[in-house]
Amino acid sequence: MSQALKKPSVDQVWEWLDAVPDPEIPVISLVDLGIIRDVAWADETLTVTVTPTYSGCPATSVIAMDIETALHDHGIKDLKLKTQISPAWTTDWLSQKGRAKLEDYGIAPPQPAGGPQHCPRCKSENVTRVSQFGSTPCKAHWRCQDCLEPFDYFKCI
Amino acid sequence: MSAATSNEAFTQFLLRMGDNTLILGHRVSEWCGHSPVLEEDIALANTALDLIGQTQMWLGLAGEIEGKGQTADNLAFLRDVWDFRNLLLVEMPNGDFGQTLMRQFLFDAWHSIQLGRLMSSSDERVAAIAEKTSKEVAYHLERSADTVVGLGDGTEESHARMQDALDYLWPYVGEMFQSDAVDAEMVAKGIAPDPASLREEYDALVGRILATATLTIPDTAFGHKGGRTGAMHTEHLGHLLTQMQWLQRAYPGSEW
User: Fold this and answer.
1) Alpha-carbon gap, residue B182 to B8, rounded angstroms
2) Per-residue burial over B78-115, b = 16 or more CB atoms within 10 Å of its CB, e = otherwise
3) How far is B160 from chain A (nearest CA, A)?
């Protein structure tokens, strides 16, 4: 009975998860990335539903481990991680906070137009694509034609 | 039809999907560290990574449907040539960069159409994998089509190499559209489309891109087959497996 009273609220768990950084882009959290789809209690078991970004993203297993570690550290013992692939992850699920943090970090956030709005450093719109792929599955490689800095663009999918 | 037989056909279908992405993913990964420029190296490695990730879903589901406790890893690393169900096209050697991208384009075009159809599969697990992977494959197709156009309609040298690649690979395209009893059962259950029904859309898409690339589709009806049924693979698959499965063959049962 007392156990039930000690159960942290779902909002509290979301807050904790929002403090877990993405292993590849540590400036944003897993919640910012939009991959945490649900947090729910069933009796004494907490289920966290995760939707992977890219099928082959090597960070996926690290993410699962980081979630487990973070929630165990907050005293949650009975944890179930559920992988859900449908609906498929989309960059529309990136939080506004996450988008702003990406830009501050030097990664241009995704745009429906299919390319960065401007250079994340000097804000010039004179940018050109170097490669459709980049340093991680979720990014492409662009360059600013004014400040000449190369930068990552978070692909819009 | 009994449930056992039915699962057998479904398993075969899933092996065909997963073996295509596995074998092509491995082939593309062979470029890692060898590409003409760094950006292309990264692009090829990313494409390979997507394909291997997709393999985990298809072969994972194949093992589940088969019901004999096989994991995606077991299916990938513990089967021999005769058990693979991939198209012959994807086991073809990389050749030069142009041949690799031509093979990629011919496969991506089919793959994108196939996944588009599978999104409305009667099996929700298949539909979910198709929904997830079709996003990645649309991106692969955009890149491989752009590169085929860039190299085909490029210099005299690049044009000649792309035409050679097309002449070499085109006889492996027909296998994508062949139907057998497995397909008939997938169609009857609404799980997957009849492969032959994809041909028209494929020809329109591929014809448009190759025309833009100033390349000529060979005038031949001859087609190699035997990969997706497992009847006969090319000599190349065995060589590929000796590399891909080396660790499990040398140290059986070892884990990461």
Assistant:
1) 9
2) ebebeebbbbbbbbbeeeebbbbbbbbbbbbbbbbbbb
3) 25
| CB neighbourhood size of B37 (10 A) | 10
Per-residue pLDDT of chain B (256 residues; tens, 9 = 90+): 455 567 999 999 999 999 999 999 999 999 999 998 998 999 999 999 999 999 999 999 999 999 999 999 999 999 999 999 999 999 999 999 999 999 999 999 999 999 999 999 999 999 999 999 999 999 999 999 999 999 999 999 999 999 999 999 999 999 999 999 999 999 999 999 999 999 999 999 999 999 999 999 999 888 999 999 999 999 999 999 999 999 999 999 888 7
- Cis upstream peptide for A87 (omega within 30°): yes
A56 and B142 in contact by Cβ < 8 A?
no
Neighboring chain B residues of A133 at a CB cutoff of 8 Å: 39, 42-43, 46-47, 143
Sequential DSSP letters for A50-76: E--SSTT-THHHHHHHHHHHHHHHTT-
Q: What are the domain boundaries of chain B?
A: 3-250
Q: What gap in Å lies between CA B74 and CA A103, rounded to an integer?
A: 42
CATH class of the structural domain B3-250: mainly alpha
